[in-house]
Design a protein that fits this description.
By secondary structure, this protein is an alpha+beta fold. The protein contains 16 helices and 23 strands. A 7-stranded mixed sheet has the order 15-14-20-19-18-16-17, with helices on both faces. Strands 2-1-5-3-4 form a 5-stranded mixed sheet. The protein has a 3-stranded antiparallel sheet with strand order 6-7-10.
């Protein structure tokens, strides 16, 4: 954008340059000035109803709403004049007149804009002596959200979200005047696929997340940027984890997921399916230690013993049957770095060609035109680059059934979710050695001779390539559970036992990828950053 297309103005004495059409509130953000507001949200339409964001514009006799007033050339704005400050005090006084004094037991404490603004602008000499109005308190309006009408400031963000984003129209303002309240329309419930976002956009404690309710105070939470692995959209998220986690007193390390703004990927939202899938991170069926089958049972073994046993079986199978006697089923749930390591070990070094990463969906997957995609894997795009020519899972299983595969290495997949369990049991039963490497104990893992526990996305670093070919980074928020390890570490251990060398540092592997894979040429972790970077084939479109 040329300088001629930008508007020049002054806000609190600072020179500001922003695109034409920008509202004052957003212009102020660009120079670090926060103007208090409730009803305004950058992802929703503007209604200008709360009157908290009024500012003084030179030569204007009245205060103006900064959320609804576009910038103009040469405009001079003051956000903290005596009149503006008095207005905020008055607005807060009216909002608090009937607000319950239940901050100590409110889940929004620590994230509440009513608390924050009151500390900055509130009247400390309360003048309201009458009985406070009573409304519905703490009642569920859907599977994920609880409504407390007494805490509501009628910003209507939730109403606009259901009208403009989810387009499900469950919520509205009921009644008029001082009786006005946010509520669900009769006969409805808040059960759309994006309902959890209402807890995010509510500026106070009126809409809270039932899943997070009373679990952890927000000031005990650490935050790590990551990517949702629930589908190929690659929504940007924050992983919120308990920094004071103690297994004696707490069950889950990860407490919740929150959307992270990315204009090109997910905007400001995430779906409920992705939001609440974090429970799997600390689930009871997580694999925590290496296991090896002894007769009908499995027993815990050391990593050294498990890796040594797999390496021995690989060597024996390759010597006796050649590369065609081994099959590898990788997973698009894995990072680019891990998939590259699999290709290096099994294809480049061991010359195994029978490598696949796809299995068909067990049932028709849901998708929509908002965020959710039919592909439920975060890295199918990357997997297709590193494992381009594949035999197909059905052909691979058929080869197992016919006794042509003598060692099968499965990464993460539960084959019984897509195929008849008896068929899978029969097919894998014909294989001399089945190795399963993954994070959860499911029916396919139970059929393996050796089980290797792998870290989940929240426990490792790496990159995914989403449906649009945007390479995005994930970061470890918590340590791997038990003795589990990132897939890249496990593959590197196996390579080392075989006398081969595979780099186990994700950043170093990504450099190798950038040097040897055309689509990734020129990329570095620094360039990918938090915004991601398009694959070369996509950037040229």
């Amino acid at each position: 954008m040329s300088d001629k297309e930008r508007i020049h103005l002054t806000i609190d004495g600072q020179d500001v340059q922003v695109p034409q059409g920008t509202v004052i509130l957003e212009a102020a953000k660009t120079v670090g000035i926060h103007i208090p507001h409730y009803c305004y949200h950058p992802g929703l339409s503007c209604v200008g109803s709360c009157r908290m964001c009024l500012v003084q514009i030179e030569k204007s006799p009245k205060l103006q709403p900064s959320c609804a007033t576009p910038v103009a050339e040469g405009m001079i704005v003051s956000t903290n004049t005596p009149a503006a400050l008095k207005n905020r005090q008055s607005v807060l006084e009216f909002l608090l007149a009937n607000h319950p004094l239940d901050c100590p037991v409110c889940d929004q404490a620590g994230e509440c804009e009513l608390q924050n603004y009151y500390m900055d602008h509130g009247r400390y000499d309360a003048r309201f002596n009458e009985n406070k109005g009573k409304k519905k308190k703490a009642y569920p309006i859907g599977p994920y959200i609880i409504l407390d009408q007494e805490r509501c400031v009628l910003c209507t963000r939730c109403v606009r979200f259901t009208q403009e984003i989810s387009k499900t129209f469950e919520m509205g303002v009921i009644d008029r005047g001082h009786r006005s309240a946010i509520d669900i329309f009769p006969g409805n419930e808040l059960n759309n696929r994006y309902s959890g976002n209402l807890a995010d956009i509510c500026p106070v404690g009126a809409l809270t997340d039932r899943d997070f309710r009373f679990k952890c105070r927000v000031w005990f939470l650490g935050k790590t940027n990551s990517i949702c692995p629930g589908c190929s959209r690659g929504c940007n998220i924050e992983i919120h984890f308990n920094e004071r986690f103690n297994p004696r007193y707490h069950k889950d390390r990860v407490q919740r997921l929150k959307p992270r703004y990315h204009k090109e990927v997910n905007g400001r939202w995430i779906c409920d399916e992705g939001r609440y899938a974090y429970h799997a991170i600390d689930a009871e069926n997580r694999l925590r230690v290496p296991l090896m089958r002894q007769g009908e049972n499995t027993q815990e073994v050391s990593w050294e013993e498990a890796i040594r046993s797999i390496a021995k079986s690989l060597k024996e199978t390759l010597d006796k049957y050649g590369p065609q006697g081994v099959a590898v089923l990788a997973s698009p749930q894995m990072t680019n770095e891990e998939l590259f390591g699999i290709r290096q070990l099994f294809q480049d070094h061991l010359k195994i060609e029978n490598i696949e990463y796809r299995i068909p969906a067990g049932e028709e997957p849901y998708s929509d035109d908002i965020l959710i995609t039919a592909d439920k894997n975060p890295n199918s795009k990357g997997a297709g680059i590193f494992i381009p020519s594949s035999p197909g899972a059905r052909n691979m299983l058929q080869a197992c059934s016919e006794g042509r595969i003598h060692l099968l290495y499965v990464f993460h997949h539960d084959l019984t979710s897509s195929y008849d369990s008896d068929y899978i049991s029969s097919a894998l039963g014909r294989v001399d050695r089945v190795v399963f490497q993954g994070s959860w104990n499911h029916p396919t893992a139970a059929l393996a001779d050796t089980i290797l526990p792998a870290a989940v996305y929240a426990e490792k670093d790496g990159t995914y390539a989403n449906i649009e070919g945007r390479v995005q980074r994930i970061h470890a928020a918590v340590l791997p559970l038990g003795e589990s390890l990132p897939d890249l570490d496990i593959v590197a251990k196996l390579a080392e036992e075989l006398g081969l060398s595979i780099n186990r540092t994700p950043a170093a592997v990504f450099e190798e990828i950038a040097q040897s894979v055309e689509d990734f040429s020129g990329m570095t972790y620094a360039k990918v950053g938090d915004g991601g970077q398009l694959l070369k084939q996509e950037a040229g479109k």
